[in-house]
Amino acid sequence: MTKRTVFVRTAVLSNLVEVAQSLNFDARPLLRAHGLPAALLADRDHKIPVELATQLLEEAAQLSCNESFGLLMAQRRQLADFGAVSLLLIHQPTIRSMLSILQRYQYLMNQSLLISVEEFDDVVVIREELVFGGDAGTRQATELAVGVLHRMFAMLFGSQWRPQEVHFKHDAPSDLSIHRSVFAVPVRFRSEISGVVCSASDLDRLNPQADVEMARYAQRYLDSLLEAKADSIVEEVRNALVNLIPGGRFALVDVADHLGMQVRQLQRQLSAAGTTYGELLSGVRTELACQYLRNSSSPLADISEYLGFASPSVFARWFRRNVGETPSSWRNLAGQSSV
């Protein structure tokens, strides 16, 4: 299987140099060593491989001797760091609609980040999963992503935004003071998810800055950006599948609804791009499966369910047909290669 290179905006590294300086560490030589001059970070829309971004975050944390480096970066983020999408986000009426916009336009921001919303009665889990982070580790990138989401809602809603808990899959740092300061709510580590837990009523709080006309203008502008890209429909469908597969609703009609299109319109555009929904589904599922097997200790049954397979045996047969190894064998080999 040929590995697809996933790109992110250099905006993901905003404030890296400044945070490093506050920790008495000069990050500019680190950036240059990876072929990324610090001046290039001023162009927030420049694209770099996601593996480079996650590696830089991990190395900066290690060299600055601060396990919460990514979270310190999140503290300095502004809505403008979301790029053109921020124009639409700030005028959404509720947090629920903001999350929908983040999922819809993920392609324009960060193709490696999966955002999903799961509701259980009055409890809502907003999961953030880095699915294409590479082998260097994703602790800093994950904490940055969760921290930025929390900060965005706090900037828009003030004291009205107060989640119940924040969760991370990785181990706790030796010093929890930064986490306590940023989130001001219980933070759970070694959890089954990375993300935020809040009440359903929080998602429907009204945004005092919302403006319907400005939102319509911003949406037309964002849609024009997507249409300007020849390969945008392929990336849009890939991104939609990354977000929809964990929820179990990723049939062709679900993807079309997610993109605001008719099924036949979507099929025609994919055909014109030289691919099909089935090919894209298989490719995304394979990429997600390999990432979960490499970067997660979750049981195969859980990964099978997360990817929408009827049973672990169906998943195992599908994986062997597409990758050439059983999931267990592939996981063992991937673990050995990362040592």
Strand content: 5-15%
Number of helices: 18
Major beta-sheet overview: 5 strands, mixed
Number of domains: 2
What is the strand arrangement across the widest sheet?
3-4-7-5-6
Please identify the structural class as seen in this structure: alpha+beta
Morphology = globular
Report the end-to-end length measured between terminal Cα atoms.
22 Å
The helix content is 40-55%
Keywords summarizing the entry:
alpha+beta, Arc Repressor Mutant, subunit A, two-stranded antiparallel ribbon, 18 helices, 7 strands
Word description of this protein:
The chain starts with 6 loop residues before the first strand and ends with a helix. Strands 3-4-7-5-6 form a 5-stranded mixed sheet. A two-stranded antiparallel ribbon has the order 1-2. The protein is globular. It has 339 residues and is an alpha+beta fold. It has helices at residues 16-22, 28-33, 50-63, 69-75, 85-89, 95-104, 106-109, 139-157, 177-183, 200-203, 212-227, 232-244, 252-259, 263-272, 277-295, 300-306, 312-323, 327-337; strands at 7-9, 47-49, 113-120, 123-130, 165-167, 187-188, 195-199.
